[in-house]
Each structure stands twice: as C-alpha cells, then as structure tokens.
Amino acid sequence: MSAHTTPMPSRAAGSAVAPDVLRRVMSRFATGVVVLTVGGEHIRGMTANAFTSVSLSPPLVLCCVAHSAVMHGALTATGAFGVSVMGADQEHVARHFADKRRPDGRAQFESFGWHSGPRTGAPLIGGALAWLECEVSAVHTAGDHSVIVGTVLSGDTAGDGSGLLFYGGAFRRLAPFDALEAG
C-alpha cells in the first residue's frame, strides 16, 4: 500500500463547523448505499454511503470507514474488499449490516444469499444491482475515519433495478431506469 498526502494550510484555524452542522448539511446530499465486505478469517460486512469512484485509469474507488468500526481493522488486515450496490428492495440488508448488534463472522451473512468474489473471496450480496472487488492501494487518515482507496480488480452489474439511496437521514428508493427515461 502506498499513500501520498499533501497537507494543505488551514485557512480558518479554530473555526471549523460543528459536527451537528456538518451532519445536517450532508443529510441534504443523496448518496447510494453499498455493503462493504471482507472475506477470509476477518469476514465482515458493513453498510456504507461514503463510497465513490476516483479514477477510470487506473480503475480506483474509495470508501471511508471510522477508525472505531470493527470493519476498519478487518479491511486493513485483509487488504481487499468487496462492494455490493444495494437495490431498492434491499433496505433490510442495508439495515442489517448497519446494526452494530448483528453477529460476528459468517453468522452475519446467514440470512442473505451471497457468494465469494472470484478474486478476493469477499462476500458479494445476492440481488445487489452491481458489485466490485478491490485491492487496497492506499489508506489515508482523515480525522476519525480512514479514506481507503481500492484498485478495482473485477466487477459487474446485475440489471437495471431501482436503487437504494440515503437522504435526509433515511433510506429512499430511486425509480428504475425505464421510469426515469419515460418521465
């Protein structure tokens, strides 16, 4: 793993916005919902909405994971991860993997269909709209989270179903492609 971070000088030292203000403002930014997973001896899943593409060449994505999350240790120890893009009918899956009381290890996947990714062994959730497998290429510390950059090793889509979004502190459903094109 390599990382190059260029610190920027602070323009407003001591006057950063309060966490509750940032949370309220960011609740107005709609995001997709994914389940991040790692396989092997650290098998784990976690719902995330801090996920995005970074680059097409080379193919890179990033996710942000709190240092305090069990997933943080599992992901950095494993060095690879899977991403399952949730469909509108998978809110129950997203809620399960967001629940800190869910079981550890393989038991957290027992209620859902899944298969091991062919390149990383990370669990990929059945019924997801799309999936990726990634190798960790950089980890950057950013406040109470790590920004984890992954090189995309494989991926595919599973159809044009309706997407699951997170907006205003709640899960929302995105209309399917055909409904958007007709409007």
Automatic annotation (TrEMBL):
InterPro entries, alphabetized: Flavin_Rdtase-like_dom, NADH-dep_flavin_reductase, Split_barrel_FMN-bd
Key word Transcription present: no
Pfam families registered for this protein in UniProt: Flavin_Reduct
Positions of the Flavin reductase like domain: 26-173
Alphabetical list of SUPFAM superfamilies matching this protein: FMN-binding split barrel
Molecular function terms, GO-annotated: oxidoreductase activity
Superkingdom, natural source: Bacteria
Enzyme Commission (EC) number: 1.-.-.-
Keyword Oxidoreductase among UniProt keywords: yes
Keywords assigned by UniProt, alphabetized: Oxidoreductase
Enzyme class: oxidoreductase
Protein name per Swiss-Prot or TrEMBL: Flavin reductase family protein
Organism: Saccharothrix hoggarensis
